[in-house]
Amino acid sequence: MIKVLFICLGNICRSPMAEFILKDLVARRGLTDRFEIASAATSTEEIWNGIGNPIYPPAQAELKKHGIGNTPETDFRDKRARQLTKSDYEIYDYLIGMDESNIREIERITGHRGGKISMLLSFAGEQAAISDPWYSGRFDKTYADVTRGCEAFLEYLIEQGEV
Fold first, then answer.
1. What percent of the chain stands above pLDDT 70?
2. DSSP state of 163
3. pTM (predicted TM-score)
4. Do residues 53 and 6 lie in contact, with contact meaning Cβ atoms separated by under 8 Å?
5. Which residue in the list 24, 132, 145, 150 is annotated as catalytic?
6. Does residue 14 carry a catalytic annotation?
7. How many CA within 13 A on the CB side of residue 49?
8. Which residue from 4, 39, 53, 54 lies 20 to 30 Å from 134 (Cα-Cα)?
9. A Pfam family for this UniProt protein (predicted)?
10. What is the DSSP letter of 137?
11. CA gap 107, 157 in Å, rounded
């Protein structure tokens, strides 16, 4: 089983989009049983009294626009923000951040550098960050960038013989 954790600042836009886009990609290939895919935040901004906020409504709308959320594998109604923990480094095979700030925070929280920690678009041969649509309002661009990164990540796993 390949365990993947996507990480962004609040876990309400980019990382849950990546979580459910990858869940959709692996479901379409009949690989759901080979993966455990989740997402988390580097901050507690979207967690109140121990309860995380749901995926931000415009991010939900963008996923739905592309047919994600309509199957048992991609149903995101119960998804709530949660914060990354130090132990996540031991649990997951891949900890994938959306930008350099996420990477620094992942390293700080887990106490590890490199290894399992990568930026999503690095799998597509890019060192670019995925812009936060909370600030840009460009949920379509974020969806396209996250999809490109997830497709490249899945191809990387196939090329490496992990899938």
1. 100
2. -
3. 0.97
4. no
5. 132
6. yes
7. 0
8. 4
9. LMWPc
10. -
11. 23
Q: Pick the catalytic residue: 8, 13, 24, 99? A: 8
Of 14, 82, 88, 145, the active-site residue reads: 14
Element (H, E) at 96: strand 94-97
Q: Catalytic annotation on 132?
A: yes
Cα 127–98–45 angle (5° rounding)? 150
Q: pLDDT per residue over 107-134, tens digit each?
A: 999 999 989 999 999 999 998 999 999 9
2-159, superfamily in CATH? Response regulator (3.40.50.2300)
Tokens of 143: 């969806």
What's at 87, amino acid-wise?
Answer: S
Residue 56, both tokens:
């931000």
